Amino acid sequence: MNVVPGDQAAGRIPDPRVRNELTYLEVQDAKRRAAEALREGRRGDALAAYSDADGKLSAAMACAPSAELDEEARIMTELRERTEARDDQYVAKLARMEHARKSRKRGRGD
Questions:
Q1: Domain for residue 2, yes or no?
Q2: Least confident window among 7-16, 31-40, 67-76, 77-86
Q3: Closest C-alpha among 80, 88, 103, 107 to residue 32
Q4: Is residue 7 part of a domain?
Q5: Of 4, 34, 46, 109, which residue is the least packed, with the fewest Cβ within 10 Å?
Q6: pTM attached to this predicted model
Q7: pLDDT at residue 110 above 50?
């Protein structure tokens, strides 16, 4: 581990690749939480998870645009709109599938 004085550390800029990866993982977690909330009939909690993910995606994309995060934003918009339309069973299934598929393959040479 590198240790640097606080004044040096304060001037460092976060690595955009690391930030995008963290955002990607947080979005997958939001999909899992939303699917669980919908299964339990907590539509408001699912919408809050989507909103949280939208905020993180927007912040990450402002720093370092990414086609992958742009696609995740599109998916989150679809999930949120379908949840607002009360298509809960479909959204819960789609969100679980998205989370499982993308969490399983991540970091394995894809």
A1: no
A2: 7-16
A3: 103
A4: no
A5: 109
A6: 0.75
A7: no
Is residue 8, in this structure, part of any structural domain at all?
Answer: no
Q: How far is CA 97 from CA 3, 83, 101, 104, in A?
A: 41, 16, 6, 11
Domain limits for position 38: 14-104
What is the C-alpha to C-alpha distance for residues 96 and 32, in angstroms, rounded to an integer? Answer: 6
User: How far apart are the C-alpha atoms of 60 and 57, rounded to whole Å?
Assistant: 5
Tell me the residue type at 81. Answer: E
Closest CA relative to residue 92, chosen from 39, 28, 43, 19? 39
Nearest to 35 by CA among 76, 82, 75, 88: 88
109 vs 80: CA distance, rounded Å: 30
The tally of domains found in the chain comes to 1
Selection from 87, 108, 109, 106 nearest residue 27 by Cα: 106
Cα 110 from Cα 106, distance rounded (Å)? 7
Say if residue 58's pLDDT is above 50.
yes
